[in-house]
Amino acid sequence: MAVQHTDQSVPPRLRFSDISVRFGGLTALDGVSFAVPAGAVVGIIGPNGAGKTTLFNVVCGFNAPAAGSLELDGDTFRPRPHHLTRRGVARTMQGLGLFSGLTVLENVMLGLEGSARHGALQDALALPRSRRGEARLRERSLQALDELGIASHAASLPDTLPYGVRKKTALARALAGSPRLLLLDEPAGGLTHEDIDELAGIIRAIPATGCSVVLVEHHVDLVMSVCGRIAVLDFGKLIAEGTPAEIGANPAVTDAYLGVEPV
């Protein structure tokens, strides 16, 4: 079980305060409040339709809350999808989101485009500053691939590789920008038991880089093994929040989620 120590003197990396999201007459999130400490791995679990992905979409600026607010490192956070990389926020999707016509390296580099400081005109003219910027993106991308043990596949097309390597490619793309907050959306989906064990080790190591992790995952054993704290959603409401041991012993969580077979 994961044991994580956080500095209580610093503000949480991410704070949700009374977040509500409505789609017409449907309330997807209803007054959700909890915090993600700096240097922590926090899990979010719950049945399908509980609001987990909607919560991620709020952080990424895809769903605007009808009420409530976000804070990032103690500052009010009004997310805009195209500025997330510059704000130090990265996300993996439930699907791979890889471009089949680009190499593994090019897919990872694409995730860094939002942090590039050279402009379109410089790119078009192939000016020295643009070339230096591309070289830096390439170096950072190769480093991310190397850290995940897949640098040897840099020149390969994703569709030619095993699914586990493609999953790592998507993760490398998110990590290449050295984010301070990483949102992992069902990273274990489709992986073998061996791949999941390897993924667990990768997730546990991420906070050492200064990055906090929020994990949405149906693989409960993975969540319990890597997360220091877990938030449980049901029908858009936060029904429990605590350590893995506290969540596992909570009758409300058992009734809502842990007592049924996750899908």
Name of the CATH class of the largest domain: Alpha Beta
Which architecture of the largest domain would the CATH scheme give at its second level? Answer: 3-Layer(aba) Sandwich
Overall pLDDT metric: 88
CATH superfamily of the largest domain: P-loop containing nucleotide triphosphate hydrolases
Order of helices and strands: EEEHEEEHHHHEHEHEEHH
Number of strands: 10
How many domain regions?
2
- State the helicity in percent bands: 25-40%
Q: Unreliable stretches, pLDDT < 50, 5 or more residues?
A: 116-122
The radius of gyration computed from the alpha-carbon positions, rounded to a whole number of angstroms, is 19 Å
Strand order of the largest sheet: 6-7-8-3-9-10
The major pleated sheet works out as:
6 strands, mixed
N/C terminus separation = 23 Å
C-alpha geometry: globular
Reconstruct the topology from this structure.
Blueprint: E1 14-23, E2 26-36, E3 41-45, H1 52-59, E4 67-72, E5 75-76, E6 89-92, H2 104-110, H3 120-125, H4 128-147, H5 163-175, E7 181-185, H6 193-205, E8 212-216, H7 220-226, E9 229-234, E10 237-242, H8 244-248, H9 251-258
Parallel strand pairs: 3-8, 3-9, 6-7, 7-8
Antiparallel strand pairs: 1-2, 1-4, 4-5, 9-10
Helix pairs in contact: 2-4, 2-5, 4-5
How would you explain this protein's 3D organization?
- This protein has two domains: 1-88 and 179-263, P-loop containing nucleotide triphosphate hydrolases (Rossmann fold), CATH 3.40.50; 104-177, no CATH class.
- With 263 residues, the chain is an alpha/beta fold.
- Residues 116-122 have low confidence and may be disordered.
- The chain has helices at 52-59, 104-110, 120-125, 128-147, 163-175, 193-205, 220-226, 244-248, 251-258; strands at residues 14-23, 26-36, 41-45, 67-72, 75-76, 89-92, 181-185, 212-216, 229-234, 237-242.
- Helices cover 33% and strands 23% of the residues.
- It is built from nine helices and ten strands.
- Helix 2 packs across helix 4 (128-147).
- The strands form two sheets. Strands 6-7-8-3-9-10 form a six-stranded mixed sheet, sandwiched between helices. The protein has a four-stranded antiparallel sheet with strand order 2-1-4-5, covered by helices on one side.
- The radius of gyration is 19 Å and the shape is globular.
